[in-house]
Design goal:
By secondary structure, the protein is an alpha+beta fold. 31% of the residues lie in helices and 21% in strands. The chain contains ten helices and 14 strands. It has helices spanning 29-36, 42-47, 61-75, 100-108, 125-139, 162-165, 227-249, 266-274, 287-290, 297-307; strands at residues 11-12, 14-21, 26-28, 51-53, 85-88, 115-118, 144-151, 171-178, 185-193, 201-202, 224-225, 258-261, 317-323, 327-334. Strands 1-9-14-13-12 form a five-stranded mixed beta sheet, with helices on both faces. Helix 4 (100-108) links the parallel strand 5 and strand 6 (115-118). Helix 3 packs across helix 4. It is globular and about 55 Å long.
Length: 335
């Protein structure tokens, strides 16, 4: 039986428009079979992906983010001048300094003087950004915020590591939010980090830890994942976490209208279906067509829900994912 009472909104926030952007280069798993010298059907069977998008080596991450932002503005008939804060919620920065938000503002031709900053909690950065945006909207500090996630995962693929190299795709997504009338918003959120898993999924270079003075190698710029160990660790935590997230808002799974997960891998989505018991009818699964788009994955799945009428007022939705760290993040919100 579901809840008979309406869940309480803890922080008002309304998603008023969404948009996505993809590189021009569409890659099929059959293409990868040929490129990697594998038999037909090998990559699709191993990765669970039919198609994905990989940007060219010279494509701009900021440019892709700007496209997603403009698509969201167009979809909602929203003036760029009405955005008073841009949050970049990406896993990989465009460069070390300045922050990625200013690169996106520049690429998108947004008005000078706009506020902006970055939030990075790897693949679940979008959830963290929604929490922060809700707080800022409810203090009155800002009235309309654009949250943009963009990652070019293909730049960090180590093709010699089959387990991780076959699952990634590039993309960008944007959600524009405001406080709204208080009927929409966050019911609860829960973000946890387990540092024992910090080395299970990493790119070591790009900061002060690995650089020309501290010492580095080319492989430090590549993505490294201990896939089996990471999946085991995440699987050992996610069941209890899922129950606590629901318990924190006083809801049962049957009360949730839509589950929007990070599209980490076909194994992680199967875990959602089988171990957590999430029905196919409420699960947003776009992994087969986009792959794992890192931080852009959750807002891309959100856009899918929005555009297909699966993110509707009065029906609680759940965003959830695991990420490097090891990080678990989830949110239940009322559209």
């Amino acid at each position: 039986m579901g809840q008979s009472t309406e869940p309480e909104i803890s922080a008002a926030i309304k998603i008023i428009s969404t948009g996505i952007a993809l590189p021009a280069e569409r890659l099929t798993s059959s293409d990868l079979d040929s490129w990697l010298g594998k038999p037909p059907g090998y990559v699709e069977k191993r990765s669970g992906i039919l198609t994905r998008y990989h940007a060219s080596h010279t494509a701009s991450q900021a440019g892709l983010a700007a496209q997603a932002l403009h698509n969201a503005l167009h979809a909602g008939t929203i003036s760029p001048a009405s955005i008073d804060l841009l949050i970049c919620a990406s896993a990989i920065a465009i460069q070390a300094l300045p922050c990625s938000a200013v690169h996106i503002i520049k690429a998108a031709g947004m008005p000078a003087g706009m506020a902006g900053f970055d939030i990075n909690s790897s693949c679940v950065s979008f959830i963290s950004a929604l929490v922060v945006a809700a707080g800022l909207l409810n203090t009155g500090a800002y009235r309309r915020i654009a949250i943009v996630s963009a990652d070019l995962a293909s730049r960090g693929i180590d093709w010699s590591h089959e387990e991780s190299s076959l699952i990634f795709g590039d993309g960008a997504a944007c959600a524009i939010v405001e406080r709204g009338d208080g009927n929409s918003g966050i019911i609860t959120s829960l973000i946890e980090m387990y540092p024992d898993g910090s080395e299970l999924c990493e790119i070591r270079a790009g900061g002060t830890r690995r650089n020309p003075r501290a010492g580095m190698s080319d492989s430090d710029f590549m993505f490294h994942m201990q896939g089996k160990a990471l999946f085991r660790y995440a699987s050992s935590l996610i069941d209890d976490y899922f129950a606590r997230l629901l318990g924190k808002c006083g809801l049962q799974l049957s009360d949730i209208g839509t589950v929007i997960p990070h599209q980490a891998s076909h194994l992680s989505l199967e875990h959602m279906r089988k171990r957590l018991g999430v029905p196919e009818s409420i699960l947003i699964d776009v992994y087969r067509h986009y792959g794992n788009q890192v931080a852009a994955s959750i807002p891309t799945a959100l856009h899918e829900a929005v555009t297909h009428g699966r993110f509707t007022p009065g029906k609680p939705a759940m965003l959830i994912g695991t990420a490097a760290g090891l990080t678990l993040a989830g949110m239940v919100l009322m559209p």
